[in-house]
Amino acid sequence: MRKIIVAIDGYSSCGKSTMAKALARYAGYKYVDTGAMYRAVALAAIRKGVITSDSIDEERLRGLVETIRIDFMIVDGVQHTCLDGEDVESLIRTLEVGNGASRVSTIGFVRRKLVEMQQRMGDEKGIVMDGRDIGTVVFPAAEMKVFVTARPEIRAKRRYDELKSKGQEMPYEEVLKDVEDRDYRDTHRAESPLRQADDAMLFDNSDMTIEEQFDALKKIFEKCLVG
After folding, report:
1. Using one digit for the tens of pLDDT, what is the confidence trace for 17-41?
2. In DSSP terms, which residues pair with 9 in a beta bridge?
3. Any idea what DSSP says for residue 170?
4. Quick count: other Cβ atoms within 10 Å of Cβ 151?
5. Rounded CA gap, 197 and 149, in Å?
6. pLDDT digits over 177-227, tens only?
7. Are 149 and 203 in contact (CB under 8 A)?
8. Residue 196 neighbours by CB distance under 10 Å
9. 185 in helix, strand or coil?
10. Residue 127's beta-bridge partner residues?
11. CA 48, CA 62: separation in Å to the nearest integer?
């Protein structure tokens, strides 16, 4: 059966990863969470003091990016992110690391290194990859491209609920500001800014349940599969 590359891009806290994982399971494809890769870089940089709340040592970061190893492994049927052999899935999901990931992702040499890794992962197709520049930079020739969006207040509420479920208490207003700040950084960075590819389908899930999102995504996939 024909295999394709699925590129899912969009704003933070849109549920891209949930959608991509579900589609990958349905299709029997490999799933790659590129956001987790940037979060892993940020975690490594925070641990070594390369990135702080107000600065980034780009010279040290360049050396770090060239030496760290980022992999994925399945734990109890769930994909986890590994940094230099360590399972860091829970550690990379904090707001601090998310902010760090948004900051390091604006740096050209970081993006180029991770894009190189990501493109190698798609050599044999049969892959679902989500992020910010998959359909525009990583796989511009992907057979299926979806750009996911939702209203900022909806995305902030989703992020707030997720953090709360993990025991991370934070005022909703602060989460909303973080979402808006990340949107600005993602769309205004010089290197591979977030934008909808010309041939990507806009997917607004503001008022959709997870089940409705998947049903709609599945229909798009089946259509792209037949060409």
Report:
1. 899 999 999 999 999 989 999 999 9
2. 131, 147
3. -
4. 12
5. 13
6. 999 999 999 999 888 899 999 999 999 999 999 999 999 999 999 999 987
7. yes
8. 18
9. helix
10. 5, 30
11. 13
Full-model pTM: 0.84
In this predicted structure, what is the pLDDT of residue 227? Answer: 76
Tokens of 158: 């989703």
What are the start-end ranges of the H helices in the chain?
16-27, 34-47, 58-67, 95-104, 108-121, 152-165, 172-188, 210-225
Q: Which residue has the tokens 């798609």?
A: 122
Q: Long-range contact list for 107-114, CB < 8 A, 24+ apart?
A: 107/56, 107/58, 107/61, 107/191, 108/190, 108/191, 109/62, 109/65, 110/38, 110/41, 110/61, 110/65, 111/137, 111/191, 111/192, 112/191, 113/65, 113/66, 114/34, 114/37, 114/38, 114/41, 114/65
- Tokens read off for 124: 């044999």
Distances (CA, A) of 100 to 4, 43, 178: 32, 8, 12
